[in-house]
Amino acid sequence: MTQTIPMPFLGDVLEGIGTRSPVAQRLLSEWQLTDRQLTVSGHRVSKLEYSGFVKRVMFETEDLFLGFLDKPLPRRAFGVFAMGAVGCRSLRALVDYGNLYFSMFTDQFHWEIARQAGTVALVLKFDERRNLSYRFIYQSMLLIWLRLISWFIGEELKPRVLAFRFPELSIDSHLRYLFGERLTFSADDNRIVFDEAAIDVPFSATQDEVLRMLKDNHNMMLVRNTAEPFTRQTRRLLVLHRETGWLRQADIAHTLGLSENLYWRKLKKEGATYSGILGNLKRDFALRLLADPNLAMEAIAQQLHFSELSAFDKAFRKWTGSTPGQYRAQLLAD
């Protein structure tokens, strides 16, 4: 009933230790996956599966950075850093403290603050010492710091722009789900750009609040943890009534006690639409059903309430770039 994550993101997680390494192969086996399946077009996993996989890799490697740095960092290092940051009362103080703290473990990265034309940017300076994309590290570090700053000021901070050094891939729509639409790729550096006033917003988090943040299982993961009550309710109602057919937008609005226009505006505020939620849900069900080799294509199309097999085929091509048959063949190939 929640957003799913493209399977290649698991490949990004394993890039530091290598997908063909004995550790990675053992972990993939635990998840009943092969390294080849990480590249299957359209394949996705749930938030729970993804966050569980990241934590399992971190536990196996005993490394906060999952093998991406020259030497491992203790898994508990972030928690100690976050608790120590309670004494910081501004973004600049947090950056100075963060740089000093992590310099005890590595000289491979640090943060800088840059001002320009009414904006302030938090810039990640990272020394790439291996031939890797570092996609997971850059995504994670920007997301973690964005969430950390939001926690310390007591509200969700919306950046003007997020920039990544790596080029954009088709799967990166998930990053837009996490960060918003204002993303740039193939940039000169990785950075979060805020309105200039952000640098002067006072921090107010207490130790108890930071402890609650650290208990959030998704804190270190590439998953969205902001409240989306109407998106969640929409997915829930669609799932619960799937057997008899997909509820219409008007039906859901009525069930929630809202006018259709107000319901539409509530979803828009969460960055969602009824058609988008329904499409993603159909896609996720289709991916799960196609993993069963005993289910005929006609039966899957019927379960998803497509009027014709050709309509299912067309929709699946739009979701994944391949036909249902091609996807199943890739997924189930030895």
UniProtKB/TrEMBL annotation:
InterPro entries: AraC-type_N, Homeodomain-like_sf, HTH_AraC. Residues 232-330 form the HTH araC/xylS-type domain. Keywords: DNA-binding, Transcription, Transcription regulation. This is AraC family transcriptional regulator ligand-binding domain-containing protein. It comes from Marinobacter xestospongiae.
